[in-house]
UniProtKB/TrEMBL annotation, chains A, B:
This is Response regulator transcription factor. It holds the Pfam family GerE. The keyword ATP-binding does not apply. It comes from Neolewinella lacunae. GO terms for biological process: phosphorelay signal transduction system; regulation of DNA-templated transcription. The keyword Phosphoprotein applies. PROSITE patterns: HTH_LUXR_1 (PS00622), HTH_LUXR_2 (PS50043), RESPONSE_REGULATORY (PS50110). GO terms for molecular function: DNA binding.
DNA sequence: AAGTAAATCCTCCAAACGGGGGATTGGCGG
DNA sequence: CCGCCAATCCCCCGTTTGGAGGATTTACTT
């Protein structure tokens, strides 16, 4: 969605990794039977792909690794990314739990689709990913977006936010005092108030809270 | 994409915010002319919507605020979210720069579309958002996903990562020593090595780097 | 077998941190 | 007008941190 199918230019060359033989062949059939797509190779596991990768120059990898080798799928993405940073990898799995999703995205996957997706939508998503997009199944996209949502109430005053920002920069009381043109005593007062409002007792906790809850900037 | 159009159930009721009168009316026409959608109200600015919100119960807000009131658009999303946490807001603007995009997402927008989107795709995206998805234009989605990508090389050893995690938790040398069953001296050694590898000199900087570069977990 | 890296332990010491108090000013709302 | 809160300043004092050094053991690599 949100991008046109390309049928006139050179077809999109891709490789797939799918452990189930039947599904692998179905995927291959789907891709090779659709103008604009060309499945160069299909592997049952990531190791096989990594072994053949030097001789391949696909435009995209469709990675479908089911339970059992869960950790492997993420590691494989990282490995592919280390060798071909520009090669987009799209996950297509049954894992819908957050941990796996975010682990895959952190490892470098550009898209994440859950199985059960309709063939036409799969093709559109693949095209999207190859064109610089990041196709995600709706629930996945929502969860990703939600990681950006910030708690509405930020109890800190403007001045306190300024001080907190300096804390995050690792500045000392003295540097902060100089930067904000106030005395070190005042800095301490602000920091004490910040700690109280955030329910923390150390700089490190305050920094973590500031970053996680996006209290600054 | 990735979701079906719903024409049989009750139509999706939405309100739109769009400062340009012509575009506002075109949007209204498009929505009201499509089975499954119903545009309850259209406002020229966010303030007007907020004033009427108590009497409205839309299933989605389509927010299209162009340049000039940039900050206002983000603030409006935050305000809507504060009053109706469950009401999804989809941005539809010309702003493609990262700052604005992430500010909107942080404020609580569930989707982000750039103008120029085809009508059919807009409708699909709206339906997607209402069904729990997070429609994003391809370039936007990619940028969002890239914020998860982690630098491939993490120079820290396993033990150092454990210590760093404790640092992020705000633990003292002593607590860390007890938690990891080592002496405080050893903890200090690890921390010194961590600081050197990360090129930082304080706890706070190390914590920021750990979170930003996803060095832990 | 030698070399390297990681993990463990140690001392000395100055600087920074954080908890407990308290005080003054200015502004804003009831 | 009075109270509250943010912002500013100050004290005492124990704890924690981090820089600069050095040492040992284990384990992996060459």
């Amino acid at each position: 969605m949100l991008s046109q199918r390309n049928t006139t230019e050179r077809p999109l060359e891709l490789v797939i990794v799918e452990d189930d033989r039947r599904q692998r062949e179905l995927l291959e059939l789907l891709l090779n039977g659709t103008p604009g797509f060309y499945c160069r190779a299909a592997f049952p596991d990531a190791e096989a792909l990594l072994a053949e990768l030097p001789g391949l120059h696909p435009g995209l990898v469709l990675m479908d690794i089911d339970l059992g080798s869960g950790r492997n799928g993420v590691a494989a993405v990282a490995e592919i990314r280390a060798r071909r940073p520009e090669l987009p990898v799209v996950m297509l799995t049954v894992h819908e739990d957050s941990d796996y999703v975010f682990a895959a995205l952190c490892a470098g996957a550009v898209g994440y689709l859950v199985k059960g997706i309709a063939p036409a939508e799969l093709l559109a998503a693949v095209q999207d990913a190859a064109s610089g997009g990041s196709p995600m199944s709706p629930q996945i996209a929502r969860r990703v977006v939600q990681t950006f949502h910030v708690g509405p109430a930020n109890p800190l005053t403007e001045r306190e936010k300024e001080v907190l920002a300096q804390l995050c920069a690792g500045e000392s009381y003295r540097s902060i005092a100089e930067a904000l043109f106030i005395s070190g005593h005042t800095v301490r007062s602000h920091i004490k108030n910040i700690y109280e409002k955030l329910h923390v007792h150390t700089r490190a906790e305050a920094v973590v809270k500031a970053l996680k809850d996006r209290l600054i900037q």
